[in-house]
Amino acid sequence: MVDLKLIQEFVKSRMGADHSGHDVAHIQRVANLCAHLLAAHPEADHIIVLAAAWTHDILDDKLVDDIEPVRQRLLVTYTAAGLTEEQVGTITEIITHMSFSKNLKHHYQLSIEGQIVQDADRLDALGAIGIGRAFYYGAHTGAPMFDPQIEPRTDLTKKDYRQKSPVINHFYEKLFKLGDLMNTPEAKQLAEQRIQVMQNFVTEFKAEWEFKS
Ligand code: ADP
Ligand code: NI
């Protein structure tokens, strides 16, 4: 028996005070989206998916300065929760390779479990929540909301990706592209609905920006 609660408690203790959009509420939504996607993929291992979902952001270099001690504690927690060495290896591989920026240069072929967690994480960057998170992130880094003089960048490299860009540009540089990058058809369908919400928002945003009586 695997005790997922132990992993959840560890993540909650680490992420409680985050103000960059990687709070526990994000993790909980990702886990809920995973449960939705798992219903359509009975071949995927639930425990691997949920353990990876709960821990997918914990070693992000945006969130921790010194990753090594956190990695050690994470490995101890996985083992204490009852995961085997092989399961820990599978989960670690997922959380190491699933991020958007890591896939900019080389596409990494994830297992079905990894594909589900990646889809769920990307879905939480879309729709109304995605809009909220993008502005929240922009405020955190000091990026402007919008600047009509600055064109969205194309063909982003990992270095570009880390550079500050107006929040609305991030919609074009990353978020609108996520629909085509979804792994599972169920996530793709949800992504299309959520991207439509964002496109309507951007249209209205630009109309209000340019409003003159
Ligand atoms: P995750 O690993 O959870 O997908 P990221 O670190 O890529 O998260 O981003 C966290 C949130 O901040 C996402 O909703 C993402 O769209 C948003 N975000 C990331 N980079 C930017 C940016 N340059 N401008 C605006 N929002 C951003
Ligand atoms: Ni995430």
From TrEMBL:
Domain named HD/PDEase: residues: 19-135
Protein's name in the database: HD domain-containing protein
Matching Pfam families: HD
Organism taxonomic ancestry: Bacteria, Bacillati, Bacillota, Bacilli, Lactobacillales
TM ranges: none
SMART domains xref list: HDc
